[in-house]
Amino acid sequence: MLTSDQALALLSAAREECARVGVPMSFAVMDAAGHLVAALRSDGAPWISTDVAQGKAWTAAAYGMPSAGQKSKMDSLPNFSTALATMTGGRFTPQPGAVPVYADGQLAGALGASGGTGQQDEDVCSAAVTACGFATTAN
């Protein structure tokens, strides 16, 4: 489980990384059960990006893998993807931009971003997770 201090550290590291990249983004930290722990919208990030970041983080936490992996799986299953989004109240967001957060090989939660390209979002999240001493895989 991620503590609020750990979530805030992830947000701080993510904000620093998006500033380095020069792209304003929003971030969301979910626990392993998909509950929001903390969120941040950097100056200039699109207003909708906070909701998108939460959806991506929820998806990464739900599957313990980057949200991009769900996009790959769902590209050929658009009806199933829509059904999952409906069943989860819109939380399922199979788009690149979130990574799981593992601590000592256990899923602790996920960090999601929105505001850049999907790859920029995911890269910023991965850098923040690593900077805070976590991993994006169980190994």
Automatic annotation (TrEMBL):
Q: Read off the InterPro entries from this record.
A: GlcG_carb_metab_protein, PduO/GlcC-like, PduO/GlcC-like_sf
Organism's domain of life?
Answer: Bacteria
Q: May I ask which residue range the UniProt record assigns to the signal sequence?
A: none
- The protein in question is named Uncharacterized conserved protein GlcG, DUF336 family
